[in-house]
Amino acid sequence: MAPEHAGQPGRATQAGQAERSEQPQQSAEPQLQRGLHARHLTMIAVGGAIGTGLFVASGETISQAGPGGALVAYGLIGMMVYLLMQSLGEMAAYLPVAGSFEEYGRRFVSPSFGFATGWNYWYNWAITVAAELSAAALVMKYWYPDTPGWVWSAVFLALLILLNALSVRTYGEGEFWFALIKVVTVLAFIAVGLLMIVGVFGASPGLAHWTEGEAPFVNGGAGILAVFMVAGFSFQGTEMVGIAAGEARDPATTVPRATRTIFWRILIFYIGAIVVVGTLVAYSDPNLLRTDISDIAVSPFTLVFERAGVAFAAAVMNAVILTAVLSAGNSGLYVSTRMLFALAEQGSAPKFLARLTRRGVPLNAMIITILVATACFISSFMGDGKAYAWLVNASGLAGFITWMGIAWSHYNFRRAFIAQGRSLDELPFKARFYPAGPIVALVMCAVVIVGQSYLIITSGGGALDLLSSYIGLPLFFGLWWGHKLITKSPAADLSRADLSAPKIS
């Protein structure tokens, strides 16, 4: 790993190590390059959370729970994400490593838990890259309906490879601009929507859509629970800042800055968008129930822009959604590559995957990730695509498992810090509401996971539906317990847990 600021409090280790750290580096081995600035970190997290879940599926959440129910659900999930980002920010600012939650789980829960967390996260985002390639092909059918979808998927895969293979700075710049397009679109949408609400563009419906029928709370608590889970999936990706911290410049400063701003920006985007859609479009509008990414004309964003008289609204939103899809694929390839690299560094994956190019890119890890993503993508064309559907379902709960791992690791990280007589003043960033924060976040994640079964059962789903939705859990526990059975590794001893931080040069 790359070295760190020697002058930061609490970063000194034993005297011999301190002396060696002051000597010139003898090794010419390539290292990860700390080329990501604060603006990159912020946009990586914002871009991870703003995607098709907001642009396309937000209408469905309002139709299920009404505008009030959607606001409550997204507000609760927003609170959970805030607590998780506080936990991750504290650990990532102090321990800015590429393995992030895999490393934290290994140090502060158990080596087996870290092993399972790392492979779970790598698999999740490798599958996501394949899913985004499929989505990009669907989006392109809007303009080129007669071109085979696999052609566009191949073109976009080549673009993602280019952005990730050159350097971490190239990836960061690409993601910055992808995310900026999404941010500008959401801000424009909220601004236009508010002007429509006050009557600048046409007649305002006022608050009529908030009181008609069952509004503002449709389907009661069941409706809120359904949206609660959708919102949880929508916010996934914010944790990417933890991976990116391993290549961030001055992480003790940039990670806390990004952590403080990410939550409020994302919450404003989601809450603002739901208020606009819920006010301007009735929850009973049948268009809100249609979430096919290839039919962009029914996106709530498109509906509102068209009613405001924005020319070519559907074409503009299609371009924005294509940007969102590419952003997710770009970041998915980056974080899965870095996680596989970190696993190899810890000996949990073949060593050749830890090799870096002279620009500090783990190219071998990226190639393997691309091959796996491509194989998953190809499986979507085989038979009726059921194999691919099961692969996607297997990664469905991976994000929530990662979030639970972050909360658990942070709870133990702080306990280890105190147990070893360390002062909290040594932390570049301190999470608020500890210990309640990680505990509440852990419980809320568990509610989302369990709630999924409730919705499947009440909607008439059978055993096969339950199995396909929960297949990711036995896979994770199989990795965790299988590693423990083979290695006999004990749980972390917090009084001796490794609190050494990398040195930043």
From TrEMBL:
Q: Name one GO molecular function term.
A: amino acid transmembrane transporter activity
Q: Where is this region: Disordered?
A: 1-32
> Which coarse location class describes where this protein primarily resides?
membrane
Instruction: List the InterPro entries hit by this protein, alphabetically.
Output: AA-permease/SLC12A_dom, Amino_acid_permease_CS, APC_YAT
Record localization: Membrane
Name the keywords, alphabetized.
Amino-acid transport, Membrane, Transmembrane, Transmembrane helix, Transport
Give Gene Ontology CC terms: membrane
Membrane topology, as annotated = Multi-pass membrane protein
Give start and end of each Amino acid permease/ SLC12A domain: 40-493
Query: Per the UniProt record, which residue ranges are transmembrane?
Result: 41-59, 65-85, 122-144, 150-168, 180-203, 215-235, 262-283, 308-329, 361-382, 388-413, 433-457, 463-481
A Pfam family reported for this protein in Swiss-Prot or TrEMBL: AA_permease
Family, similarity comment:
Belongs to the amino acid-polyamine-organocation (APC) superfamily. Amino acid transporter (AAT) (TC 2.A.3.1) family.
PANTHER family from the UniProt entry = AMINO ACID PERMEASE, GENERAL AMINO-ACID PERMEASE GAP1
Record's protein name: Amino acid permease/ SLC12A domain-containing protein
| Top-level taxonomy | Bacteria, Bacillati, Actinomycetota, Actinomycetes, Actinomycetales
